[in-house]
């Protein structure tokens, strides 16, 4: 064979290789359009996030969110700032000060006199007990004293006021004022408790757990029971398990607080290339991403893309600002990002399981109630399925080729 013929054959083989490569690329691109999918590819999720830059145009119908890679800084911020806290919302509270008399309270006012024939004494008894109900105007009536404004007074102040008013009228008067029924210092406890009630507060500071106990306690497991406290215009919600585990969350309640106890089992949903799909219960008070991945059975190595492990969530503003920065957050708002009505904004977190450190970071990244976890498929699976559709040889992946990776 001549030298020229050898060179010609090499060029021909090279040209055929290029043609096959071009055909493969074209088929791969075409497969993405024609092959039915069970969710977006990794690059499609990343491309769906709002990119930075003032020239970026956002269609009016597009939801605006950011896609954030999980690293240790992000995991720490989500854990610290994203964990609900009654203490952060309301403060722990102090001793509560000295209790005062309020509207509706029922008092027992006992008046003593030194002489046997006084205004409030007889030969049989040197005292008289007068029941007093504090009226809506804050006042109550005492014979020979008249109208006394009890609301806002302590029991000791009320005693001194009555004694001073009787000094010129009674014989060496002394007075004892006690609380017969506490109607003004109550906390409302409703929901999944032993018995919903208006729980009266004692003279000392009462913790939230004590008030719940007086209402019969929660009827469901603490890791699936939420406690919501409303005070004025503020509302805070935590798991009952959080109050049990963290004494700082067992805050001191105040009169007129409203407490709602709700049974709502924590779950997360799993989609994509995992062994288990659907809604999965936590079965615990907290759950890390690594634990959630294990509950989902791990990823399918034959079809999963390790670079595409995503967590879809609505995140609190403080957490969002921490993970993306204030400037980025304002940019997203300018582009049209909106909240869900509860002050939370859409975000997607991504874990790249092709990176070794991701398996460590995932141990400290918390999964939240109602999170959606999605493991995308590998792009090569689309091409394989497309070829199978064209050639008619599409078949399920063999058992031997399917291995499960538990993260």
TrEMBL record:
InterPro entries registered for this protein in UniProt: Poly_export (IPR049712), Poly_export_N (IPR003715)
Domain of life: Bacteria
Keywords, comma-separated and alphabetical: Signal
Domain Polysaccharide export protein N-terminal: 100-179
PANTHER family for the chain: POLYSACCHARIDE EXPORT PROTEIN GFCE-RELATED
Protein name: Polysaccharide biosynthesis/export family protein
């Amino acid at each position: 064979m001549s030298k020229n013929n050898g060179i010609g054959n090499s060029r021909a083989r090279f040209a055929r290789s290029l043609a096959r490569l071009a055909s493969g690329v074209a088929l791969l691109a075409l497969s993405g359009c024609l092959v039915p999918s069970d969710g977006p590819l990794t690059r499609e999720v990343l491309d769906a996030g709002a990119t930075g830059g003032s020239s970026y145009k956002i269609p009016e119908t597009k939801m605006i969110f950011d896609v954030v890679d999980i690293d240790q800084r992000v995991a720490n911020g989500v854990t610290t700032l994203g964990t609900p806290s009654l203490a952060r919302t309301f403060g722990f509270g102090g001793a509560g000060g000295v209790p005062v008399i309020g509207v509706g309270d029922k008092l027992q006012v006992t008046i003593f006199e030194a002489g046997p024939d006084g205004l409030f004494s007889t030969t049989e008894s040197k005292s008289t007990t007068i029941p007093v109900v504090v009226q809506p105007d804050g006042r109550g009536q005492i014979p020979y004293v008249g109208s006394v404004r009890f609301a806002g007074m302590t029991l000791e102040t009320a005693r001194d006021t009555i004694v001073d008013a009787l000094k010129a009228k009674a014989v060496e008067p002394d007075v004892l004022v006690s609380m017969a029924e506490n109607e003004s210092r109550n906390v409302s406890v409703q929901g999944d408790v032993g018995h919903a009630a208006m729980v009266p507060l004692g003279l000392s500071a009462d913790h939230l757990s004590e008030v719940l106990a007086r209402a019969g306690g929660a009827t469901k497991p603490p890791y699936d029971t939420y406690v919501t406290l409303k005070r004025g215009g503020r509302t805070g919600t935590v798991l009952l398990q959080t109050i049990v585990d963290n004494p700082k969350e067992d805050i001191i309640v105040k009169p007129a607080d409203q407490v709602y106890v709700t049974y709502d089992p924590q779950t997360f949903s799993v989609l994509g290339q995992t062994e288990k799909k659907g809604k999965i219960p936590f079965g615990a008070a907290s759950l890390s991403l690594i634990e959630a991945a294990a509950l989902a059975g791990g990823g399918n190595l034959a079809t999963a893309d390790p670079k595409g492990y995503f967590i879809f969530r609505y995140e609190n503003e403080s957490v969002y600002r921490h993970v993306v920065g204030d400037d980025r957050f304002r940019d997203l708002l300018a582009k049209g990002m909106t909240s869900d009505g509860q002050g939370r904004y859409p975000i997607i977190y991504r874990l790249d399981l092709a990176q070794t450190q991701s398996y460590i970071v995932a141990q400290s990244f918390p999964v939240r109630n109602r999170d959606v976890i999605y493991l995308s498929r590998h792009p090569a699976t689309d091409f394989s399925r497309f070829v199978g559709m064209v050639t008619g040889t599409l078949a399920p992946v063999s058992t031997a080729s399917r291995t499960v990776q538990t993260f």
